[in-house]
Specification:
This protein is α/β, with parallel strands linked by helices. The chain has a domain of about 200 residues: Rossmann fold (3-Layer(aba) Sandwich), CATH 3.40.50. The strands form four sheets. A six-stranded parallel beta sheet has the order 2-1-3-4-5-10, with helices on both faces. A two-stranded parallel sheet has the order 6-9. Helix 3 links the parallel strand 3 and strand 4. The protein is globular, with a radius of gyration of 19 Å.
């Protein structure tokens, strides 16, 4: 089976490359190799490589910058999946479009099911919602929503907090982290496995036909956390893994204490029940997944 992967140098892209199941021909494209803001380039890549699947893990993910760059965010997050879907309709391939919890507004206070109406609060969420709609025009497309993604490489909250814990602890200062936004941290390792299962490969379904079932899937690790909870756990488990000599004291602050250009959902937990059954995956609690990521970060 031939797969075309976008965002190959991103944190999820790297996890997908590392976890590639046997028998997969993976054409991994970085931003430099495939400009997702260029629909012609996206279509040409499909025509040239004739993939069975496009795994569109690349995206414009700078949530705050998107507020001042809406055209670029829309080109990457919606224009690229539209171009892939159009080209794949002609070649007979399929599309896995990665999406986000930011397509919801966070107002309901209970986990969001895949079929619920969308209500993004900002440009990033709106462009990702438009990307979902564009992808799903292709009957052979699936959308996989996730959120709070982190891993042992790249730019993410976990690695930033490790650095800040070290700096603040050395100075004897505390670290303020938002405590009134709730979701679930999601490891790139578990997310990559969900992606492979979504396209019908990986144990125990190796060499299986592309998975059938829901066209919109949700994936996150198990449990619930605020950014404050996540930051505290990173400090505790960072010390246990030998990555930190000492964790800084973490202070809970409010969203109002840390204003940003883009509004963020206060509650973005995803209901993954149906998706886990469809993919045949057991949930991993986010603290257990975090410990695994930090152990790998020690090696790196």
């Amino acid at each position: 089976m031939k797969m075309l992967l976008t965002g190959a140098t991103g944190q999820l892209g790297q996890a997908l490359i590392v976890s590639k199941p046997p028998g997969i021909e993976l054409i991994a494209c970085s931003r430099a190799e495939l400009d997702l803001a260029n629909p012609g380039a996206c279509q040409l890549a499909v025509v040239r490589h004739q993939p069975d699947w496009v795994l569109n893990a690349g995206a414009y993910t700078a949530v705050d910058n998107a507020e001042s760059e809406p055209e670029l965010a829309m080109a990457v997050n919606a224009g690229a999946p539209a171009a892939f879907a159009e080209a794949l309709a002609a070649t007979g391939g399929r599309l896995l479009q990665l999406s986000t919890d930011f397509v919801f507004n966070g107002a309901q206070g209970s986990p969001y099911r895949p079929e619920q109406p969308l209500g993004p609060l900002g440009v990033y969420g709106r462009t990702k919602a438009a990307g979902e709609a564009a992808a799903l025009i292709l009957p052979e497309a699936r959308v996989l929503r996730t959120g709070w993604v982190y891993g042992p490489v790249g730019h993410n909250f976990c690695l930033t907090m490790l650095r800040l814990h070290a700096q603040k602890a050395a100075l004897g200062e505390s670290l303020g982290v938002v405590a009134d936004q709730v979701g679930c941290p999601t490891s790139t390792a578990t997310l990559a496995e969900a992606c492979w299962r979504s396209v019908g490969v990986g144990p125990p379904a190796a060499n299986a036909k592309p998975a059938e079932g829901p066209r919109i899937l949700h994936w996150s690790d198990a449990g619930v956390a605020s950014w404050y909870d996540f930051a505290v756990a990173i400090g505790e488990l960072g010390v246990a893994a030998g990555l930190l000599a000492q964790a800084a004291t973490v202070r809970p602050i409010t969203t109002a204490d840390y204003p940003t250009p883009a509004r963020r959902p206060s509650y973005s937990l995803l209901d993954c029940t149906i998706s886990r059954l469809a993919l045949g995956l057991e949930p991993v609690h986010w603290r257990a997944a975090l410990a695994q990521v930090l152990a790998r970060a020690l090696i790196l």
